[in-house]
Every structure is written in C-alpha cells, then in structure tokens.
Amino acid sequence: MQIGMTARTVAVLMGGLAGATPAAARACPGPAVAGQLPGAEPVPVCVEEVRFSADGLSLAGQWFTPREPGSAGPLPAAVLIRGSGPSHRGSVWTETLAGVLVAEGVGVLVPDKRGSGASEGDWRAASFSALADDALAGVRYLTGRPDVDAARVGLMGLSQGGMVAPVAASRTDSVAFVVNVVGSAVPLLESVRFEMLHTFREEGLEGERLETAMALVDTAVGHIRGRISWDDYEAALHGARPVLGDEIADAYFIPTPDHWRWAFFRRLEGFD
Q: Is 138 left (phi over 0), alpha (psi -120 to 50) or beta?
C-alpha cells in the first residue's frame, strides 16, 4: 500500500522549506535548505536534493539530516525503499518514518522510485531485483559522501520495500543493517490476496458479495499463472458484476487483456 500526498503533508513540508528563517537556513551546509518532517512534534531537518544513477537511469532523491546542535560529523544513514506503486513526495507515512530516524541522529535518503517524481525509468516494468539494484545505488551514493559514516549505512524497506531490502542486502557487505517495516513474509500473490480480503471488508462487502469478490480474485490469480484463459476470466468478471456492482468491479478488477498489471504481476508473482 502506498499512502498518497495530503494537504496536511504539503503544508508541513512546504511550511518548513518556504517558511524557514534565514538563521535556520544558514544552519544547513552546502546546497541543503532548512525544513521539517512530520511527527509527534515537527522534526527540524536539512533537506538536500540529490541525484545518483542505477542501471543506466538517473534517480532523484531527498537527503534529510538533523538540524539540531551536536549533529555535526559523519552520520549513520539509511536508504528508504518505498512500497508498491508510484512514490509520492509528501507521503505522511514515508516522511514520518524518516523523521523518526533523523530525530535519532540518522541521515535518511528518500529516493523517488524509478518512474516517479524526478527519477527516470518505469517501476511497472521493474523486477524486485532491479529495485534492489536501485537501493544499492543509493547505498553507494551515501558511502561516498563525507558527511556519512560509510560503515553505518543500511536499508529501511516499507511494505513491498521490506521484501526488496533483504534482496539488496544479500548482494553486498556494505549494508550495515536492514529494517523491514510491515514487509510481507509470504509469496507476493498470497499477500495481495490477504490485502484484497481486508480492502473489500473495509468497503463494506460481506456475505455473498465478499465471497464473490474473493472468488474473482482467485480467478484473476489463475489467469496470472496461466491456468485460466482470458475468456474464462472475462466471463467470471461479467457474471460477478450484478453482485459486486460496477463501482467495486471497475475499481479492483483488471478490465482488459493487455493491461500492464497482468505483466507486472506475472513478473513478480514467483518471488518468495
């Protein structure tokens, strides 16, 4: 699940960047500017826009460091790996977790996921292996910074990013730690099915409607795995519409055989 931008987050972030006093701004070194991250109390930070490369792509990110007295010197640092879907600057979840680390004296690199924000590429065509390479590119960038303690750089994966982080860490000795925040511990489609069950319950589905929705999820999984033809899936979707209603059917079930999500799930469904 990826939490999108909200007016509150934009207000917190832009209020910190645009409304910083000259004195606070001077406390930040180099090209960084003064800002805040959300939390129980706003976390004062220095924010630097950065770029690094992975797999021939130019990736963008924001480098957050403490703005409190006594935070000078090489810092331990974390590369944050975002969850499924596109990434959005201003995510309350992402920024709050980054703020927790910064408040403890840890620098945090929050990249724009490939194909999101100012990063090149397309996350829809990326495997977990490719996303792991992107995360390691962030690690390499941080270990080359003079304000970072290269021996204390790790990964923090959120949701689907929690599945990617161990893949990245297994490829190098440069990752000092891995933090997995609600990452799945089961195969991808099993976690998707669990998510859909609870999503439908939150939508108010119960009884026959809930059973019909989950049966259709299982039919879609069968089509992803090549066990059920498109014609059979389409017929099942058509038959379920009167029970589910068009709003649920259109919001949660793939309507065409050439939709990018089929290839996306087929690329990732075998990951365990």
A: alpha
Q: How far apart are CA 271 and CA 60, in angstroms?
A: 27
Tokens at 55, concatenated: 């797999």
Q: Are 2 and 182 in contact (CB under 8 A)?
A: no
- Note whether 78 and 101 are within 8 A (CB): yes
Show Cβ contacts of residue 8 under 8 Å, excluding neighbours closer than 6 positions.
38, 92
In a structure prediction context, what are the per-residue pLDDT tens digits for the chain, which is 272 residues long?
A: 233 333 233 223 223 333 333 334 346 888 999 999 998 889 999 999 999 999 899 999 999 999 875 556 799 999 999 998 888 888 999 999 999 999 999 999 999 999 999 999 999 999 999 999 999 999 999 999 999 999 999 999 999 999 999 999 999 999 999 999 999 888 889 989 999 999 999 999 999 999 999 999 999 999 999 999 999 999 999 999 999 999 999 999 999 999 999 999 998 888 87
Tokens of 214: 């989950």
Distance between CA atoms of residues 193 and 87, nearest Å: 22
Residue 149, phi then psi, degrees to nearest 5: -80, 105
| Tokens at 129, concatenated | 């292996």
